Amino acid sequence: MPATFNDLIALMDRLRSPNGCPWDREQTYATLAPMLLEEAYEAFEAVEEAREGRPAELCDELGDLLFQIVFYAQVAKERGEFTINDVTTAIHDKMVRRHPHVFGDVTANDAATVLLNWETMKAEERRASGKTENPNTSLLTGVSSKAPALMEAHQLSTKAARVGFDWKSVDDIFDKLQEEIEELRTAIKDHASLQDEANHARVREEIGDLLFAATNIARHMQVEPEAALKLTNRKFRQRFEYIENVLHDRGQAFDQTSIEELEELWQEAKKRPRIYTE
């Protein structure tokens, strides 16, 4: 018989009970934090598995992430702060409130209008909750600076685009990308002739600008850049491991192999089907 959400809550209550698991009883907000982040990332990576026709991994990882949420709610309940019912009620009410075009009489015929209404309602909610609206508060304040840099760049540019601060087309961003490439080339040339900290900082800044422009191309093409780079990382792992395995079978080390031979093996690896096991 399938386990229900209530079964999971009961399981968590048992694990944290005096007769439950010693390790689970010791956990706190602070000790759970790294695990919450880890499970979120593993679920994020499993999305690509699902897109490629392997949904079982995503199902499993979502379960792990859900368990962390239930775990946090149990700790909060024991501290007398809130319960899992408070969590589900809060998100249910928030989603109803922020979808007046579904549950109310507001009209929103496209996703762009929905997003604009969403930002307006978030501001209204902050005022209603008694939070003082700082007139200098940026639209970008809600984007976490603790997120991975690629994800942060995507969210920052997405927020700005919602109020019209955006390129008209992806071709315009390619022009910007080319501009950033040339600026980086210049910075690298200067760095080669003037080896000092200031020039190195300039190279770093130009590389960041180049990556930010590439992130905006991904956004315009409705591609999540973090997921796209993850996919490329996985491809690189698989292809590089193919080269390692071939060299191992030959009894050959990397320092005994020319760059031409390595390139030939890389091209062989590219022709092989993707088989991801992560």
Task: Give a structural overview.
- There is one protein chain.
- This protein is mostly helical.
- Among the domains are: 5-97, Orthogonal Bundle (Helix Hairpins); 225-271.
- The protein has helices at 5-15, 22-26, 29-51, 56-78, 84-97, 100-103, 111-128, 149-162, 170-193, 197-220, 225-250, 259-271.
- The protein starts with a helix and ends in a 7-residue tail after the last helix.
- Helix 1 crosses helix 4 (56-78) and helix 8 crosses helix 10.
- The radius of gyration is 25 Å and the shape is globular.
Strand content is: under 5%
Structural class: mainly alpha
Question: What is the number of helical segments per DSSP (H or I, 4+ residues)?
Answer: 12
Would you identify the CATH H-level superfamily of the domain at 5-97?
MazG-like
Distance between the termini: 30 Å
Please report the total strand number as a whole number: 0
| Oligomeric state as shown | single chain
Please give the largest β-sheet: none
Shape: globular
